[in-house]
Amino acid sequence: MSVETLPIVSTPCIGACRLDRDNLCMGCRRTLGEIAAWSRLDENERLRLMREVLPLRRIRHVRA
Questions:
Q1: Which residues contact 17 (CB under 8 A, 6 or more apart)?
Q2: Which class for 21: exposed (0-12), middle (13-18), buried (19 or more C-beta within 10 A)?
Q3: Domain coordinates of the chain in residue numbers?
């Protein structure tokens, strides 16, 4: 019997680390709290952030 494992979710960091006026990273659109907690988040929480939360923040940023 084989056990399928999910790949570890890498960081959304692109190395453009600077906060904007909304205190979001200009590179990855995470908050400081999300950045600090990233290593402690489980894979489901990381996936949720990368698939649901961060894309919405990017869209809002482009429209602003």
A1: 25, 26, 27
A2: exposed
A3: 23-63
Confirm whether pTM is higher than 0.70.
yes
Q: CA 11, CA 16: separation in Å to the nearest integer?
A: 13
* 38 CB-contact burial (10 Å; exposed 0-12 / middle 13-18 / buried 19+): middle
pLDDT digits (tens, 9 = 90+) for 5-34: 666 678 999 999 999 999 999 999 999 999
Residue 1's pLDDT is what? 53
Token pair for residue 48? 């949720």
Residue 27 near residue 14, CB atoms below 8 Å: yes
